[in-house]
Design a protein that fits this description.
The complex is a heterotetramer, with two copies of chain A and two copies of chain B.
Chain A lengths: L3 E5 H15 L3 E5 L15 H5 L4 E3 L4 H13 L3 E5 L10 H8 L2 H4 L9 E6 L14 H5 L5 E3 L4 H13 L4 E6 L6 E5 L11 E4 L4 E5 L3 H14 L4 E5 L2 E3 L3 H11 L2 E8 L4 H13 L8 E5 L10 H4 L3 H9 L7
Parallel strand pairs in A: 2-3, 2-4, 4-5, 5-7, 6-7, 10-11, 10-13, 13-14
Antiparallel strand pairs in A: 1-8, 6-12, 9-11
Chain B lengths: L41 H26 L13 H9 L6 E3 L5 H7 L3 H4 L1 H4 L23 H15 L5 E6 L6 H13 L3 E7 L2 E2 L2 E2 H4 L16 E5 L3 H16 L5 E6 L18 H8 L3 H11 L5 H23 L7 H5 L7 H17 L3
Parallel strand pairs in B: 1-2, 2-3, 3-7, 6-7
Antiparallel strand pairs in B: 4-5
Helix pairs in contact in B: 1-2, 1-3, 1-11, 1-12, 2-3, 2-9, 6-7
The chains are: A alpha/beta, B alpha/beta.
The structure holds thiamine diphosphate (2 copies) and magnesium ion (2 copies).
One magnesium ion binds next to strand 4 of chain B.
């Protein structure tokens, strides 16, 4: 008798916050415009009304201050969930994130832990102007001490945000903003998924598409198109970038012998580089062709009229699949 | 004694803003005398009026274009035009202006083509104008980040012996960012010729000033840097011209930076995407509408017989023309050119970018059957 | 009217620091009367004296250990001990202290074992003590970054209804960082019970205060946040106890944050690795030596007959014991344990870390032939 | 008749600054303690005395302010060279670097260029406490619009810094601080090397070690040890991470068929991931074994007493070489 509702990803995130706040009085939500306005994407809608100003509140406009204050509140028994309004507006907090959020537990040998979540609406595809569309996961994933999570569906958004809030370690929670309005059935009482468990979203036998966050629906679209052409593509959704689920990903790649990694972020020195590197290290002799990447270009995020050229699309994925040296096998 | 500052005389008088913002023309259009600042000349006020009516028209035309889907988004400065007009009008051609996303009116007053300015919000490119053509930096989106740049431009000018003054704009919310602090401090220590001009429009999106700062006023922030702070009625073009003009003159004379806070109001929502009813009342907006900067200056100029019907009509015609040019310019949809993606990342594209550009060209070639 | 702050009364009187820093005992050890602050009790001053002599000894012992190669580096607070002693002494056990790398004396006064404190500078681990044991945050290295944490701890305490006050320390140089600004502003807006205590020791490494700020004083920085600023003689333990004690009491009573600037001096180089002769004269150091905080309080207490020879001898003995314990504790070299590298990165090590730990264990196993 | 001097890397950098300042009046140097003190590593020693306060000066203590002011000075005709005192103390400037330094040329379609250099003493191996030993290259290398340079020798330090100052684009110049005191002959008039040219530091036929900055001497040490055991290792020094010299690196790897990438930085989502990914993509069929990585661990930089476990050493490199599936060839 599960409690299933049809929700957008935005609504699922809002529900996750509400349910977490109701379940645990130490969960507090703050940031820019998250109070009465409910956030510019309305993810915190209604929280101040329901839980009061002490539990969900607006701060002055200063991201380092927000993250730094969250560090202090976490040190003093709270579970802060803070919102950075857009990806590029988290950069002012970079020093706090890298030099404190990621390091406090280690610095104090586990005496001071920071159970806090930094929510970042991230990625492109919404026609946003400069600074509103960055895919910043690689900065965080490269920083030891952080968990980095990127859901690709409303159901995962709910479950993973609950898990993030429950985590006793800091989580950078990347919300693919172009999926905020995508709707699906969400089982609210399905239990909280563990971090570090990737999932096979579509079975397939010819090649494996590895994606996370906003790229998962694109990978699924490519797989659907490929199926029409008689090619069977498997799609793996990482769900958490850190920790990384080597077992699921490598098992998938070994089963097909070919793989394409898909990510909106610029490819150079990125999470997608890591996926190629680590999967190749582990699956080298199972690979019929080098793993290909379909990523954002190595350019600053382009203006809205040009973003389609930058973002991985199903066609570009299929081109990469075509390049996987089929003739030789 | 070097290394002992405890006896440093706190020369507070020159730093602390006066209790009331400077006002030279009251909301009904009557001149009010002021101890320090004189009413600008009739000519200057007429020029301001022309720029004000044009700016209002640009704001409202841009908002209309958003409703029609021809612009993606527009942060209107409706109600704040006097601030922006004055900020531009007090500068010489050699001075620099550092605007934010909300400062279209300042750019238009500086002489930029609104169609070029709106390239950003139309989504064609990040900046549509040549910053050197009018010495106007790209409109800054990340809040307060442009302020240290302004200090750098000003400091470089001083090192080169150039008489440049830099006008750096930001909002009330942006004063909370670390970059605001660092910029004011650098400017003060280097005595850089920068006028920091805060348009306090009472809100940072939904967050009212009282949640942004507990200071007596934002102008008081100057004290902590040794930078004089001044408050001015942000809907009074005359007061703005006088105060900003004096600040620019002082900076040009080597007097160092100043911090000017204008008290004004954002009549529209933050942008068209915002729903202001979630955080403020219509009553509040109504009260501010009565202080409208355009009608205020109009009342004064008309009362003094300075604004003739001919002059008013000429101004309206010019605004019509500009609005028409905006409609025309912004309905042209240039064919997006993917080569542009790679052309400007570096002076010489890296081999990596050359390869990526070839890939895209190849995709497009296949699409168009080349 | 909400949304119009132009009439906000600038309640400046309570924010602006007085012209002269508070001094209750002059450099010759004579009491000086003060309008606002009374001399602390003899008992409090004797306690401060004990902590001062101990702190001086800890500073000098640590510097000696560096010369002997038993500590990698030590930023001495020689000359600033009165600030640190007072900062710790005015707190209750439930309050929190947020120190920097230079604040060893504050930590020792708070009751921490110097050997645990110096684990950082010995190179064994990043923080050698349990921050919850004495409610002392890890000593912060990245400047000013600890200040927003202090605000967070204070705000959380207020939400929980706890009477905690947080004492947040930083140097003069650190006031230039954006985090200083953001922390003061957050504290003011949330009325968080934080005392921001700036030890202005005149230098940030080689950079003198005059190149750091053009403000009348660092305490004046409070004005821009609506935070009262107070200046105090940083070599006068009595004044420090009085001023910091009052600030803590006010914060505890819900009065919100305060900014206290102590005028003091860094007698030693920045650290042993620094060469202070490159940027300051011996004369300057000499002048400050005459204001030494330890001898000043000693002169006062001796003059009043409060410091008996027995008490002085007991204090010296205790300092000897602590110094001996430091020498002993810091010559023990624990076998470095590589498991520690992986044990504390996350509550549960990621599979990646487990694999890396196994790799290292394997390397070591081969080395030791296991 | 070349002008050759025996210099440490620190002295070579100092000479590069002096020579650049003498050659071009628009070059200005500023940062924390770079004036009378000459910087905590003395890289700017004597510049204020020689060129005056206007050309080399101390700033208030604020890294975002320093980088932001450099942006403005570069906009107004100067060539600023700024120093971040240590790697982790560049993080406060991260927003300025990512959102402006890297993007200004692109934003303005080449109208506003930023010829500026951000010098960062970086990496570990000097027994520094927390925050003084980060290898932050991956953050910058992932950010399109920046050049990222890391010299491994005094001669390269001189030439590459001159090239960086001459560049019309911003350069993040990473100085391996543990090499500051290593001394070698430097030809001061050898001409300025182009960016994007890796160099083979040692010829070898069995496997290729790919390294940059502080890891190059370690790779050379490993190669020397391997030679004693009869294994011939080639060593490639990237010199510039961005742009990346695919040709030299791939030619080298193809010539041996085996490779190990070495870097002090944590491996996950890093420059070393990128090297593995891009070399594998290009050289897949020439590889006898997957490319291995010897990198810093995925942990916060450890305290001095433990840093030896974290840093790639010659032994660990040789272990990785041993693992390159020799039996199968
Ligand atoms: C660093 C940064 N953080 C957050 C934002 C998102 N944002 C855009 S405008 C805005 C409010 C700005 O308020 P204010 O400075 O008062 O200027 P106004 O919009 O009122 O003109 C916010 C939070 C941003 N642009 N940059
Ligand atoms: C963010 C940051 N930038 C630079 C440094 C390097 N640094 C360490 S101490 C110091 C000077 C600090 O001066 P001040 O705040 O006056 O404190 P003091 O050392 O005098 O006690 C500098 C620049 C740092 N630790 N953190
Ligand atoms: Mg505003
Ligand atoms: Mg200092």
């Amino acid at each position: 008798m599960t409690d299933v509702e049809k929700l957008t990803m935005g609504q699922a995130l809002n529900r996750a916050l509400r349910d977490a706040m109701a379940a645990d009085g130490s969960v507090v939500v703050f940031g820019e415009d998250v109070g009465p306005l409910g956030g510019v994407f309305r993810i915190t809608d209604g929280l101040t009304a329901e839980f009061g100003e002490a539990r969900c509140f607006d701060t002055p406009l200063a991201e380092a201050g927000i993250v730094g204050m969250a560090v202090g509140m976490a040190m003093n028994g709270m579970r802060p969930v803070v919102e950075m309004q857009f990806d590029a507006f988290a950069y002012p907090a970079f020093e706090q994130v890298v030099s404190h959020v990621a390091k406090m537990r280690n610095r104090t040998r586990g005496r001071v832990t920071l159970p806090m979540v930094i929510r970042i609406p991230y990625g492109g595809g919404i026609g946003g102007v400069e600074h509103h569309c960055d895919s910043s996961e690689s900065y965080y994933a490269h920083t030891p001490g952080l968990h980095v999570v990127a859901p690709s569906s409303a159901a995962d958004a709910y479950g993973l945000l609950r898990a993030a809030i429950d985590s006793s370690d800091p989580v950078v929670f990347l919300e693919p903003k172009k999926l905020y309005w995508s709707r699906e059935e969400v089982a609210l009482d399905a239990g909280v998924p563990g971090f570090g468990t990737a999932v096979v979203r579509r079975e397939g036998t010819d090649a494996t598409l590895i994606a996370y966050g906003p790229s998962v629906p694109v990978a699924l679209e490519a797989a659907a198109l490929a199926a029409q052409e008689g090619r069977s593509l498997q799609v793996v959704d990482l769900r958490t970038i850190v920790p990384f689920d080597d077992d699921t990903v490598c098992e998938a790649v070994r089963s097909t012998g070919r793989a394409v990694v898909i990510s909106e972020a610029s490819g150079f020195a990125s999470v997608s580089s890591e996926i190629v590197a680590r999967v190749t290290e582990r699956c080298f002799h199972s690979l019929a062709a080098p793993i290909r990447r379909v990523t954002g270009l190595d350019i600053p995020y382009p203006p809205p009229k040009l973003e389609a050229f930058h973002l991985p699309g199903a066609d570009r994925i299929l081109d990469a699949v075509d390049d996987l040296q089929w003739e030789e096998s | 004694m070097l290394g002992d500052d405890s006896a440093m005389p706190p020369d507070l008088g020159s730093l602390v803003p006066a209790d009331a913002p400077v006002m030279l023309i009251d909301p009904r259009g009557e001149a009010v005398p002021h101890d320090t600042y004189a009413l600008p000349s009739g000519e200057a006020l007429l020029a301001a009026y022309g720029a004000l009516t044009l700016s209002r028209r640009v704001n409202d035309q841009a908002s209309a274009l958003v409703r029609q889907g021809r612009l993606a988004v527009y942060p209107s400065s409706h109600g704040q035009e006097a601030c922006q007009v004055a900020a531009a009008q007090v500068l010489t051609a050699d001075d620099w202006l550092f605007p934010t996303y909300r400062d279209t009116a300042a750019l238009v007053t500086r002489g930029l083509d609104p169609v070029e300015v709106l390239v950003l919000l139309k989504g064609d490119w990040h900046c549509g104008y040549d910053p050197y053509a009018h010495k106007v930096a790209p409109q800054a989106t990340p809040l307060a980040t442009q302020l240290p740049h302004a200090v750098g431009v000003a400091h470089a000018a001083r090192l080169k012996g150039e008489p440049t003054v830099v006008m750096a704009l930001c909002g009330d919310g942006a004063t909370s960012e670390g970059d605001f602090h660092e910029a004011l401090n650098f400017a003060a220590v280097f005595r850089a010729p920068v006028v920091f001009f805060v348009q306090n429009n009472q809100y940072a999106i939904s967050v009212p000033l009282a949640r942004q700062s507990a200071a007596p006023s934002l102008a008081h922030k100057g004290v902590g840097y040794g930078v004089p702070g001044i408050r001015v009625d942000g809907n009074d073009a005359a007061a703005l011209l006088a105060v900003l003009g004096a600040a620019v003159a002082r900076a040009r004379d080597g007097g160092g930076p100043q911090l000017v806070e204008a008290h004004t109001y954002r009549i529209q929502a933050h942008t068209n995407a915002d729903d202001a009813s979630r955080y403020r009342d219509d009553d509040e907006v109504g009260a501010w509408l009565e202080r409208d900067p355009v009608t205020r200056l109009e009342a004064y100029l008309t009362g003094r017989g300075l604004l003739t019907p001919e002059r008013a009509a000429a101004g309206a015609r010019r605004a019509d023309e500009v609005a028409a040019a905006m409609r025309a310019g912004l309905s042209r949809d240039a064919e997006p050119d993917p080569d542009q993606l790679f052309a400007h990342v570096y002076a010489t594209p890296t081999p990596q970018l050359v390869a990526q550009a070839a890939l895209i060209a190849d995709e497009l070639g296949r699409e168009t059957g080349d």
